[in-house]
Amino acid sequence: MSIHDDRPSRGGQxxxxxxxxxxxxxxxxxxxxxxxxxGYTAAESLSPQDLREGPGFGELQERASLGWSAxxxxxxxxxxxxxxxxxxxxxxxxxxxxxxxxxxxxxxxMLADLGFEQTELLAQITGGTEVLAGALLVLGLxxxxxxxxxxxVMGSAVVLHAGNGFFLPNGVExxxxxxxxxxxxxxxxxGRVALDRGRAWSRRPGVFxxxxxxxxxxxxxxxLLVLR
Length: 228
Hints:
Blueprint: E1 13-14, E2 30-31, H1 37-44, H2 48-53, H3 57-65, H4 70-96, H5 103-113, H6 119-139, H7 143-161, H8 173-188, H9 200-203, H10 205-225
Antiparallel strand pairs: 1-2
Helix pairs in contact: 4-5, 4-6, 4-8, 5-6, 6-7, 7-8, 7-10, 8-10
């Protein structure tokens, strides 16, 4: 279990074991970075007795109880694998015509029926986005960007078919659920069972989630307003 103190009033400083607040806190005071794994390792070296005797133990204990857990990692891994696998399959249908899919020509004709222009290029872009985003989600790599790609595609689908109502078989229920899952992954992050582990967007999923959301909205707007 990693315990750290990032309270603004203390500037992220944890006094060495055996010292009291305000006493001997000169050059020997240890500075821990909230996002530095080495800081976690150093904090773990403190014994439970040292921590109980130190200042702010109650707050440290509360923060530790709210820390990341293996169950959250497992849940995010399953969500990534399922969502990524679904879009790998959908993209392969569009790009290669496998798994009963229409292939690029058939998908381009579907786009033309919906009123789109440059349908051959758009078919390749859509299929490629789904395959690439799906693969990245399975690996847990560049997760905010991958989730943004899926959100953009599904958001466009929801807008296009909103007139059909919400519930299946003709409504947008399925597309809306996939878009919501992608949105959730953008802001929750990939979890620690991922190639993104330790990267900036994994440590600060909220910030990069907002960036991904902006990219998804812009991409969907371009497709719906410029290419249609």
